[in-house]
Write a structure and sequence with these properties.
SH3 type barrels, 145 residues, globular, 8 strands, alpha+beta
C-alpha cells in the first residue's frame, strides 16, 4: 500500500516524541503509536511542496487534566481496528513534520500499511473544537521532527 495523502482526521502509525523526551535529548519516540492528524498545512507558494502535518498522540494513559484530551469511544476504536482498552487523543502535545517524514511507521503486524483509518466526522469535529480552544488558550506544545 502506498503512503497516503495526509488529511485531518486520518489516524496513522507514528513514532511520537513527547516533549519531555525531546527535552532529555531524545530524537526518537519510545514507541510507535496511533496518532491523529489534526492539521495539514499546504505551502501556498509552492503547489508541489510537501505539506506540514501536526499529529496528536493516542494513549492508554488517562491525562491528569481531562480538558487537554478527548476520550475515544469504543465504537471508534473498533472502527479503526485498535484494542479495546480506554484511550485518549492528547491535544496539548503535538509533533510537527513535513509529510511523510522519517517517523511514519508501518502498523505492527501489517506490512505496508500506515493508516488505521479516518476518525468519524462527528468525533473529529469535537476533537477539532477542543484543539481550537487549546490553541486559542496557548495551551499546546509542539515538538518539531
Amino acid at each position: 500500500m502506498a503512503i497516503p495523502t495526509p488529511e485531518p482526521g486520518l489516524v496513522i502509525s507514528y513514532s511520537f516524541l513527547w516533549s519531555d523526551e525531546a527535552a532529555e535529548g531524545h530524537a526518537e519516540g519510545r514507541k510507535t503509536r496511533p496518532c491523529a492528524i489534526v492539521l495539514v498545512l499546504v505551502p501556498a507558494d509552492n503547489a508541489d511542496g510537501a505539506p506540514g502535518v501536526y499529529v496528536a498522540p493516542i494513549t492508554h494513559s488517562m491525562p491528569p487534566d481531562p480538558e487537554v484530551a478527548v476520550e475515544i469511544p469504543m465504537s471508534v476504536k473498533r472502527h479503526l481496528g485498535l484494542d479495546q482498552e480506554r484511550s485518549w487523543v492528547v491535544l496539548e502535545e503535538l509533533n510537527s513534520f513535513v509529510w511523510p517524514g522519517y517517523d511514519l511507521r508501518q502498523i505492527p503486524g501489517k506490512p505496508g500499511e500506515y493508516v488505521y483509518g479516518h476518525l468519524p466526522p462527528r468525533f473529529f469535529e469535537a476533537l477539532r473544537d477542543r484543539f481550537a480552544a487549546l490553541y486559542m488558550a496557548r495551551a499546546i506544545r509542539s515538538t518539531p521532527r
